[in-house]
Amino acid sequence: MAFTLNLMSFLNIAIVILISKRLFVVSRRVQVSVDKSVTVQNNVDDLVINLPGQPNVDFRHYAGYVNVNESHGRALFYWFYEAWTLTDEKPLVLWLNGGPGCSSVGYGATQEIGPFLVRTDGKDLQLNPYSWSREANMLFLESPVGVGFSYSNKTNDYDNLGDDFTANDAYAFLHNWFLKFPSYRNRTFYIAGESYAGKYVPELAELIHDKNKDPLLFINLKGILLGNPETSDAEDWKGMIDYAWSHAVVSDETHRIIRDSCDFTTNKNSDDCYQAVDEVLIQYEKIDIYSLYTPVCIANSAYAETKSMYAAAKKATSKMMPRLMGGYDPCLDDYAKSYYNKPDVQKALHVGDGLQLKNWSSCNMDIFYGWKQTKDSVLPIYKKLIDAKLRIWVYSGDTDGRVPVLSTRYSLSALGLPIIRSWRPWYHQKQVAGWLQEYEGLTFATFRGAGHAVPIFKPSESLAFFTSFLLGESPPLDR
C-alpha cells in the first residue's frame, strides 16, 4: 500500500526505531527491555471488534498484551479507548487501580470511567454517558503481572511483586505501547488512579521524570490525578481511625485507647493498640468501609471476600498494622467477573491464544497478601514532582472509610505547602459538589456524598472535575 510521510511522522518513526534497538535498565533491581518484535503501527491485531454486548459507537478501542520482559515472558494486559471526538487533539491518560492486586479493567474501565459499563446480567455492556474518554484517550492497564489477564511465564516473578517492580514494568509497558501507537509518543500525557494507585501513580511519574533526562526515553508527562489515594502510612492510619470515630463507627473508648497507645509513625505499638485497631476492623466488617451510607451486598462473593480479608488482618501475628484491600466492594464485582470469564469476551479482547479460558477476577488476593515492598510515604515524591512543575490534583470522596478524607488532609498538611486559595465549595450544575483548596503546586478537592471509587457515586461531577484538571482550570467556585 502506498503512503506518504510528513515530517512529524518521520520523526516519530525515527524515534521508534532508535528505541526499539535500545536496552535500558530502570532500576538496579529489575532489568527490562523494549520488545524488538513490535513494528511501527502494529496495533491492527489489537483492534477490538465483535465485543459481546457492546453498544454501537463511533470510536475505536484496542486490547491485548505488551511484553515488558522478554526473557521472563512477562506481559501486561491493556484496554485502550480513543477519545469520542477529536482523537488526534486530546491528551492520553493512563488509569491505574490499586489493591494492590486489583484490575484497572474491571474497576476503572467498566465500573467507573470507561465508555462501557457491565450490565447486571453479566452478559452485556451499556454506554457510560459520563466516560472520561469524552475528554481524553484513555488507557487502562492491569498491573502488575498476576492482576486480571496480565501474566508472567516465570513463577518467581509473582513472589517478588512490590512498588518498585510495578513501577518498572509500567514504565517498560509505556515505551513498548508507544511502539504499537507511535502517534501518541509525544502526546500530552497524564497518569490518574485511585486507592493504592496513590502510590503507583507518583512512583511511576517519578520514574518517568528521572528517565526523561534521556531524550530517547522522553514521555510528555504533564501531571497526575489521584482519588482517595494511599499516600503516607502514618497519616493514612491516623485519618482512618479519626474518621471512624468522628462518623460514629467506633466508641469514644476505642478511639481513646488508639490515640494513647498507638504510634503509627514508628509502628512500635502495644497489645492494647492492636486490640483497639481490631475493634475498628470488627465494626467496619458490618458495613461497607468503602461507602459508609450504602447497603452491603450480603450475598455477593466480593463482600464475602472482604469479610475474609478482615479476618486475616485480625489474625496477623507480625507487629505491623494490618494491610487492608484498597479496592471497592460494590455489587458490580460479580457482574464484571461473569462478563470477563466468558470465552467470547476473552476472544474479542485477544486474551491468551483465544482457546484456553483464563480465570479473571477483579482482585488477586495472593498478590495482596504477598506484597513484598511498599514505600511508607510518597510525600517526598510529591515534593519532587511539585518542584518539577507537574500538575498535581488530589480528590476525596467524603463517605469513604478506607482512605478517608481525613487521611488525605493529614498527608497533604504534612507537605507544608503555602495556600493560594483557601477552603471553599466548588459547584456542579449549581449545586455544591464538594470543597476545594489550592496550594502552591497542588489542588485538593472533596466530593460530597461519594465513596471510595468517586466516579461510581458521582459520575457527572467527576467528569466535570476531570475536564477542569485537563484544562488546568479550577472547577466552578460559584453558582
Chain-wise SSE layout:
Blueprint: H1 7-20, E1 23-25, E2 31-33, E3 61-69, E4 74-81, E5 92-96, H2 105-112, E6 116-118, E7 125-127, E8 137-142, H3 163-180, E9 189-194, H4 197-211, E10 221-227, H5 233-246, H6 252-261, H7 271-285, H8 301-314, H9 332-340, H10 343-348, H11 365-370, H12 379-387, E11 391-397, H13 405-415, E12 419-428, E13 431-439, E14 442-447, H14 454-457, H15 459-471
Parallel strand pairs: 5-8, 5-9, 9-10, 10-11, 11-14
Antiparallel strand pairs: 1-2, 3-4, 4-8, 6-7, 12-13, 13-14
Helix pairs in contact: 2-9, 3-4, 4-12, 5-13, 6-7, 7-8
Strands of the widest sheet, in order across it, are 3-4-8-5-9-10-11-14-13-12
- What would the average pLDDT be, to the nearest integer? 86
Number of strands: 14
Structural class comes to alpha/beta
Report on the biggest sheet: 10 strands, mixed
Runs in which pLDDT lies below 50 for 5 or more consecutive residues are: 1-40, 301-309, 314-320
What is the strand content? 15-25%
Percentage of helical residues? 25-40%
Count of spatially separate domains: 2
Terminal-residue CA separation:
56 Å
SS element count, helices: 15
Radius of gyration computed on alpha carbons: 22 Å
CATH architecture descriptor name of the largest domain: 3-Layer(aba) Sandwich
**Order of helical and strand elements:** HEEEEEHEEEHEHEHHHHHHHHEHEEEHH
Which shape, going by the Cα principal axes?
globular
What is the CATH C-level name of the largest domain? Alpha Beta
CATH H-tier superfamily of the largest domain? Alpha/Beta hydrolase fold, catalytic domain
